[in-house]
């Protein structure tokens, strides 16, 4: 995972270096299209977190503080730290991404368990559509009840609207076993939403993952470290587990893919070597990863990038 993030940063630097050498004096913002933006719908994000603070471009909160005075909790504070962790994982995979934060309304029935209102989720997705984001990341689940049926219907409608706008959507599968397989937004009728489950290091799905036939992909989701390895500022690593973790990583990977496509298209227009990218198009699978040819400072070298465990629909182990 970190190898790809490093590769992306290095490729961008070399691409910008090539532009300068070729006489292209335009600012990066003039060359690239709009930044790849992920709408992170969660419990808010701590904007003072050093891993994400430069990536956040704005946000909105639907978490009520005082309904009578129409006051909400701020989006730039995380209610339980979950949103901050998910933001960190997305940025860890794609360090060039921009985040638009949408904070959900929550209530508590039992200590230590957060419950999200479907009404606030629907409002958040609608706002993401209006902001014309590229990706929506939803690392949570909501169960349909007798009291929230209308709000669930509204959530389904806005997710369908997002699909019509070709926004990539990633949501978490349930982690409560196969008998809990009708949670939302995964249970929405549209096929244009990726249901993500958590996998162990071996690639096998976690044992408490829900109905695996309803899962599109599994991503690393067991004891995933949020911090960057080797960061001297980190005194203690924080391992995270669950399909919410896997969903954030999937969203980050999607951002990487969109960004590299954007770089390739712009470089091709400028007529650089092999489309302007410092990495050639010559690459091939090798020992579970990718072996790519790179031309750097006039020299040709081969670089290996390992691949994290990833399976297709309904596959395990």
Secondary structure blueprint with pairings:
Elements lengths: L1 H20 L6 H4 L5 E6 L13 E6 L2 E3 L4 E2 L9 H12 L4 E6 L2 E2 L7 E2 L1 H13 L4 E4 L3 E2 L5 H16 L3 E5 L10 E2 L9 E6 L17 E4 L3 E2 L13 E2 L2 H28 L8 E8 L2 E8 L2 E8 L11
Parallel strand pairs: 1-5, 1-8, 2-5, 8-10, 10-12, 12-13
Antiparallel strand pairs: 3-4, 6-7, 9-11, 14-15, 16-17, 17-18
The rounded distance between the terminal residues' Cα atoms is: 20 Å
Structural class: alpha/beta
In round numbers, the mean pLDDT is 78
The number of helical elements comes to 6
Which strands sit side by side, in order, in the main sheet? 2-5-1-8-10-12-13
- Sheet-strand content, in percent, reads 15-25%
**Largest sheet data:** 7 strands, parallel
CA-atom Rg in angstroms: 20 Å
Oligomer: single chain
The total of beta strands comes to 18
Helix content: 25-40%
What is the H-and-E element order? HHEEEEHEEEHEEHEEEEEEHEEE
Give the overall shape.
Answer: globular
**Low-pLDDT windows of residues:** 272-290, 305-317
GO biological process, one term: proteolysis
Protein name: Peptidase S8/S53 domain-containing protein
Domain Peptidase S8/S53: 35-258
Biased composition (Basic and acidic residues): 292-302
């Amino acid at each position: 995972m970190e190898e790809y993030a490093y590769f992306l940063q290095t490729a961008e630097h070399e691409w910008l270096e090539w532009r300068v050498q070729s006489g292209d004096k335009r600012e990066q913002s003039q060359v690239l299209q709009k930044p790849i933006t992920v709408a992170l719908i969660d419990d808010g994000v701590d904007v003072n977190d050093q891993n994400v603070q430069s990536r956040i471009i704005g946000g909105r909160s639907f978490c009520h503080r005082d309904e009578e005075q129409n006051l909400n909790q701020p989006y730039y504070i995380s209610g339980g730290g979950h949103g901050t962790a998910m933001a960190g994982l997305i940025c860890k995979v794609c360090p060039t991404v921009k985040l638009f934060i949408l904070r959900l309304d929550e209530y508590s029935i039992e200590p230590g368990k957060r419950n999200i209102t479907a009404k606030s989720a629907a409002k958040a997705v609608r706002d993401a559509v209006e902001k014309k984001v590229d990706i929506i990341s939803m690392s949570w689940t909501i169960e349909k009840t007798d009291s929230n049926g209308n709000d669930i219907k509204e959530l389904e409608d806005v997710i369908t609207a997002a699909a019509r706008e070709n926004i990539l959507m990633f949501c978490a599968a349930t982690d409560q076993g196969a008998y809990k397989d009708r949670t939302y937004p995964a249970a929405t009728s549209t096929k244009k939403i990726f249901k993500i489950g958590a996998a162990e290091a071996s690639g096998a799905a976690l044992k408490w993952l829900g109905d695996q036939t309803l899962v599109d992909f599994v991503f690393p989701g067991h004891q995933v470290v949020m911090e960057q390895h080797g960061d001297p500022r980190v005194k203690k690593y924080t391992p995270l587990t669950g399909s919410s973790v896997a969903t954030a990583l999937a969203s980050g990977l999607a951002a990487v893919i969109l960004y590299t496509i954007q770089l390739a298209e712009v470089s091709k227009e400028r007529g650089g070597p092999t489309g302007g990218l410092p990495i050639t198009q010559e690459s091939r699978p090798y020992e579970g990863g990718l072996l790519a040819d790179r031309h750097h400072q006039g020299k040709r070298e081969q670089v290996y990038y390992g691949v994290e465990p990833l399976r297709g629909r309904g596959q395990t182990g």
